[in-house]
Design a protein that fits this description.
The protein is of the alpha+beta class. The protein has a single domain, classed as 60s Ribosomal Protein L30, Chain: A, CATH 3.30.1330.200. The strands form 2 sheets. It has a 5-stranded mixed sheet, with no helix packed on it. A 5-stranded mixed sheet has the order 2-5-4-6-7, with helices on one face. α2 runs parallel beside α3. The protein starts with a strand and ends with a strand.
Length: 159
């Protein structure tokens, strides 16, 4: 297996069956994984913030930093490679509230809401998620099987 690390504000898409896409330390950030078993491809994005309008220049430079620009970019990658919306399985993890001060900004909750809104506008839904709470998560997506593993509190679960 070849692990492809998706860094914060980053994205990866692969059709290599031996690839596993992984991202780490999803606190208030949101990790979104897409998989298309028919096309044999998977993708992952690690978004920090919900709304790119707070910094348009940064969104142009690093669209994956924001849910509202990153998720459409990930979807376009799949559609341009021949995926059909009806074949996409979309899952998400993260969106926690890591510090008491964060309650005021609700970044995790807003990331989750932005994702749901963008998916809905594009005729997609989350098939599963592991979001909220107050702990960090890491996720990995096996391209060959579509299996998404969430690591939290030293345990692994599949969603």
């Amino acid at each position: 297996m070849n692990t492809v690390v998706v860094r914060m504000s980053g994205m990866a898409v692969s059709s290599q069956r031996n690839d596993v896409l992984a991202t780490y330390s999803l606190g208030s950030c949101l990790g979104i994984a897409m998989h298309d078993a028919v096309a044999g491809m998977g993708g992952m994005i690690h978004c920090m913030l919900p709304d790119s309008t707070i910094h348009a220049a940064k969104a142009t430079e690093r669209p994956c930093m924001f849910v509202d620009t990153g998720v459409p970019l990930l979807l376009r990658e799949f559609l341009s490679a021949g995926s059909r919306r009806e074949d996409l399985v979309v899952r998400a993890a993260g969106a926690s509230c890591m510090m008491p001060d964060e309650q005021a900004f609700m970044i995790g909750r807003r990331n989750r809401e932005a994702c749901l809104s963008i998916l809905g506008k594009n005729g997609l839904t989350l098939s599963a998620s592991s979001v909220g709470g107050n702990s960090s998560r890491s996720i990995s997506l096996d391209i060959s099987t579509g299996r998404l593993v969430v690591r939290q509190h030293g345990r692994e679960t599949e969603i």
